[in-house]
Design goal:
Blueprint: E1 2-4, H1 6-10, E2 15-22, E3 40-49, E4 52-66, E5 73-87, E6 98-100, E7 105-107, H2 108-119, H3 157-163
Parallel strand pairs: 5-6
Antiparallel strand pairs: 1-7, 2-3, 3-4, 4-5
Amino acid sequence: MELDLKPVFSEEGRALRFDYSLDLSGFELASGQYPFRSPIAVAGGVSNSAGVVTLKASAEFDFYTECDRCCKDITEHYRVPVQNVLVHEMAGDGGEELLLVESDLLDLDALVTPCVILSLPSKHLCFSGCKGLCPRCGRDLNEGPCECVGEGDPRLAPLKDFMD
């Protein structure tokens, strides 16, 4: 979605609201998964207060993936804030908060998409205490212990002999 910011930049006290759906269904993870099965709801506004143009928005979405420990399908809900001060020109490094808008048009999709992707955690768990899968037999350890639990890792066998 493109916003025409000319009225907001030119008139102090002016505001512009937006509310739309961003489709990232074609976004593929390195694992081959397509985690955005439903549109991302983006809502917010741009306002000019005392000559400072500020964008405040949020992106709300469901993220479909697998638990990194037990491989069960999970859905996580996120709400990501997006906030920037918009400027027509910048002297030096403006930092993360300043966003250079060279023309009066702002591509919201190009702004929101990286915010959504970078906000995602690196690990996804079905619950914080997930025990995962047995490395030997593949049983889901959340459902109870497997029969090979007592055997241990064979690489540690020399340490067992050392202790005896």
